[in-house]
Amino acid sequence: LPGFGVFGVGGLALTILGVVLMSQTFVIPRNAYQLTVLTKGVWIALGGFIGIGFGLIAARLFLPRAALASGLAMAEPEPEIEQSERLAVFDELLHQTGTTTTPLRPAGKARFEDRLVAVVSDGSAIEAGQSVRVIEVLGNRVTVEATDN
After folding, report:
1. How many CB atoms lie within 10 A of CB 52?
2. Which of 3, 9, 27, 88 is deepest in the core (most CB within 10 A)?
3. In the chain, % of residues over pLDDT 70
4. Distance separating alpha carbons of residues 97 and 31, to the nearest angstrom
5. What's the pTM value of the predicted model, to 2 decimals?
6. Cα(48)–Cα(58) distance, integer angstroms
7. Is there a contact between 147 and 132 (Cβ–Cβ < 8 Å)?
8. How far apart are CA 20 and CA 35, in angstroms?
């Protein structure tokens, strides 16, 4: 809601007041009719904001399970990749050391014995020819860190 985080309830009250004032031709009521119109406008605006609140809560609770909306949200990713989904198996490289053949900024290639593998550094830039150790293998993503020689 606009201004709710900065002004708290005052920001919400000013928003409702702005909606009410837009729906009428006067600012300050000067007779009984105008007071009735102002009161009716305040209740309509409050009802609208309360309805929007309940609608958002209902959408948050029930929409993910609705049959028509099931394809709108992505499912939670599974942390482990099935063996049948892998393009290559690099599990045997875990904790092995090798040498980078290209600079890793953060991705590049490294050689482990006679195998050239696409790797990703742990976030740091690693120069070509530096010794690296595999710290994580997830599917075909091999994460390495520089080792001190």
Report:
1. 11
2. 3
3. 80
4. 86
5. 0.44
6. 15
7. yes
8. 12
